[in-house]
Design goal:
73 residues
C-alpha cells in the first residue's frame, strides 16, 4: 500500500529535507548581495542572513552525522 514503505524515520527525513532546502536557497544570497551593491545596509543584511544560513546548514550536517553514528538511518 502507498505510504507503507519508509527509507528512514520521519525525523531523519526532516533533517535531510531541511538541509536540501537550505542548500538550494544558499546560492541566492550571493545574488541578493550583488543586487544590493550600492546599498550598504541592504548588502549587510543579506551578508548576515547568508552567514546565519551557513551556520544552520553546518548544524544540520552535524545532527545528520550524529544520527548516522547512532545508526538511526
Amino acid at each position: 500500500h502507498v505510504g507503507e514503505t519508509s527509507g528512514c524515520s520521519d525525523h531523519d527525513h526532516d533533517l535531510i529535507h531541511e538541509l536540501s532546502r537550505r542548500l538550494d536557497s544558499l546560492w541566492r544570497y550571493d545574488q541578493y548581495i550583488a543586487n544590493a551593491e550600492w546599498r550598504d545596509e541592504l548588502r549587510q543584511f543579506w551578508m548576515d542572513a547568508k552567514a546565519l544560513e551557513q551556520q544552520a546548514i553546518q548544524r544540520l550536517k552535524e545532527l545528520i552525522k550524529q544520527e548516522v553514528r547512532n545508526e538511526c538511518f
